[in-house]
Amino acid sequence: MLYTLSRSPYACDLAALLRTARPGDDLLLLSDGVIAGLRGSPAARALSASPLALHALENDIAARGLSVHFSPNIAIISYNDFVRLTEKQPQQMAW
């Protein structure tokens, strides 16, 4: 399953998303969802403790000026990599 988080972790039920995650699932942070990847934040710690493979869109991180504050535990990817994730995980759930 590919989960996409496009809202701030403070405006959604991140705990519910994490309860549904299983090993082998991927999570892509995009739009305001990249806020969940801020280094040292409670959301980033919760994501790092989950079984999810973590990814974030480079353009959305840069657009918000968060590059220097982003967690090194989350892979920063391009739109082409996003397409590869959708090929790898045919099922998707948006948050």
From TrEMBL:
Single GO biological process annotation from the record: tRNA wobble position uridine thiolation
InterPro entries (UniProt xref): DsrEFH-like, Sulphur_relay_TusB, Sulphur_relay_TusB/DsrH
Locations listed in the record: Cytoplasm
One cellular component term from this protein's GO annotations in UniProt: sulfurtransferase complex
Keywords: Cytoplasm, tRNA processing
Gene3D superfamilies according to UniProt: DsrEFH-like
Assembly: Heterohexamer, formed by a dimer of trimers. The hexameric TusBCD complex contains 2 copies each of TusB, TusC and TusD. The TusBCD complex interacts with TusE.
Family the UniProt entry places it in: Belongs to the DsrH/TusB family.
Stated name of the protein: Protein TusB
